[in-house]
Amino acid sequence: MSVIILTLLVVFLTIVVRRWYRCISIKRKLDWVNHIPGWPLLGNALEFAGPTSEVLDRISSLFNKHGKLIFVDFAGKPNIFTTDYDFNEFVLTTHSILSKSTDYRFIRNWLGTGLLTSDGPKWKGRRRIMTPAFHFSILEQFVEVFERNGNILIDRLKLEIGNDSFDVYPYITLCALDIICESAMGVPVNAQLNEHSDYVRNVKLMLKIGMIRSTSIIKNNDLLYPLTLDHWREKRAVKQLHDVTYAVIDSRRERLEKSGGKAGEEVDEFGRKRRLAFLDVLLRSTSEGRPLSRDDIREEVDTFMFEGHDTTASAMTFAIHLLSLHQDVQRKVLEEQKMIFGDDIHRSANYQDLQNMKYLGCVLKESLRIYPSVPMYGRHTKEDVYYKGKLIPQGTDIIIYDYGVLHDPKNFPEPEKFMPSRFEENDGTRPYNYIPFSAGPRNCIGQKFAMLEMKCTLSKILRNFEILRPVPEHTPILVSEAVLKSGNGIRIRVAKRKW
Fold it and tell me: Could you say which residues bind heme here (predicted)?
């Protein structure tokens, strides 16, 4: 036993020393980036220790002290953190840095190497296959899904009328989960009606574990992580999530085969043409000569679930919070809604209605500026890259601190002030000041879908309820997990809307 322990210790120390030496080598080559003083071996890892509610303040403080380009050594993992406009534009637009940062490996057990986590030829091929799935002719079909699940949300919110305050986030996140499940897989999971289902619980667990691993010295290490309880929780959750996805894929594939390979052209029991799900697009791509295996399809469906659930829930919840505090903005949104819907204020929205909600779109953009759903995201250099003649060595993670970019007063005067009119007057110059959906070749492929979903859901809420400040007043505690959330919820009051 002692020999085994000694061997494991030697292996561990060898890995630590190699990682430390590699980090020092990269650090020396990045002498043109401001370096933060750190501890031996640990580097700057202690800067990120503590509760996730302090992460944004800690990172913002580092930028305030050291400038817009800083080198961060996370226990031997070299990173460039950036809020610099020119550098961000270079990183996001160059085809030399298309790989995601190494922290994305924490969700690969669930997502595999789908569109979000893959790189190279595989990513290019997947992007080419998936792009048609977000054509407006297909997105238009999902408005029905938004409406149906939004109606369930309204019925649930009616139970809160008259209460002093309640946390709206659980309602919104379950509605978003229902929408993305039905849109991605073509089948409802009824999360709003069964919020304690295993699927809902496992999705939440995977999102939480991903963030914990990125900030924990022990769980960040692939050698030590299997010794933790979270590793075994993750294995169980991933198996259950994959079982659900595989079952749906097999069912839809069987239906495809029965329809002669024409996914989306079969009809339901009432003779109506079935709506395409993203899964159907993947299956149809297979039948049209671009074959995807069962595992390939599962990766992309699970990726939709990850990217399209918590991000939109976060954005909608913070928008509701801001609207509760700014009644003048809420009234202006209502004026636009009245112009669109006229006397039939509670009718279902259609695709053109959502396109016409210009001011509501500005509200959502400004809300995403103040509370970006993904406050930071990363790239990784697979080869040496040169920026303005300066070397970015192979093996460097580059973390774009979007929260800092969006709160920089040089980019947005009075950055803490909620002013949707910024985006009515936006002239389009310096587009890399506003990148909540990333930018360049690896921008968010689903951003149009997300904006339609958020417009439809918020429109329905606002046409049914007045959104009021809570009693007593409520200040969100920002928690930077994989997605930005409020650690103490988002508390509001609602009253029945009178027209």
Answer: 444
Confidence band for 446, pLDDT divided at 50, 70 and 90: very high
Binding residues for heme: 444
For residues 160-199, b (16+ Cβ closer than 10 Å) or e, as one string? beeeebbbbbbbbbbbbbbbbbbbbbbebbbbbeeeebeb
Buried b (16+ CB within 10 A) or exposed e, 226-260: eebebeeebeebbeebbebbeebbeebbeebeeee
Query: Could you tell me the pLDDT band of residue 287, with boundaries at 50, 70 and 90?
Result: very low
Read off the tokens for 489: 């919820």
Half-sphere exposure (Cβ direction) of 269: Cα atoms closer than 13 Å:
0
Instruction: Count CB neighbours of 264 within 10 A.
Output: 18
- Closest Cα partner for 297 from 280, 282, 309? 282
Give the pLDDT band (50/70/90) at residue 186.
confident
Name residue, tokens 């859901």.
Answer: 457
Cβ-count burial 442-452 (b if 16+ within 10 Å, e if not): bebbbeebbbb
- The model's pTM: 0.90
User: Could you tell me the two tokens for 486?
Assistant: 């409020």
119-140 burial, b if ≥16 CB within 10 A, otherwise e?
beeebeebeebbeebeeeebbe
Contact 360, 333 (CB under 8 A): yes
Residue 268: how many other CB atoms lie within 10 Å: 9
The set of residues, in sequence order, having a beta carbon less than 8 Å from that of 407 and lying 6+ positions away, is 60, 370, 415, 416
Residue that is written with structure tokens 């595992």 in the block: 295
Distances (CA, A) of 4 to 1, 11, 91: 5, 11, 45
Q: Helices 310-325 and 327-341 meet at what angle, rounded to 10?
A: 110
Give the rounded distance of the alpha carbon of 8 from its chain centre: 37
Handedness of CA 335, 341, 342, 343 (dihedral sign): negative
DSSP 103: G
Say how far apart CA 98 and CA 90 lie, in whole Å. 11
State the binding site: 444
Q: Read off the amino acid at residue 142.
A: F
Span 48-66, average pLDDT: 88
Planar angle of CA 284, 285, 290, nearest 5 degrees: 145
Question: For the segment 80-132, what is each residue's pLDDT rounded down to a tens digit?
Answer: 999 999 999 999 999 999 999 988 888 889 999 988 889 888 888 888 888 88
- What six digits make up the tokens of 334? 């209502």
Does the CA dihedral 400-404-406-408 come out positive or negative?
negative
d(C-alpha 499, C-alpha 487), whole Å: 35
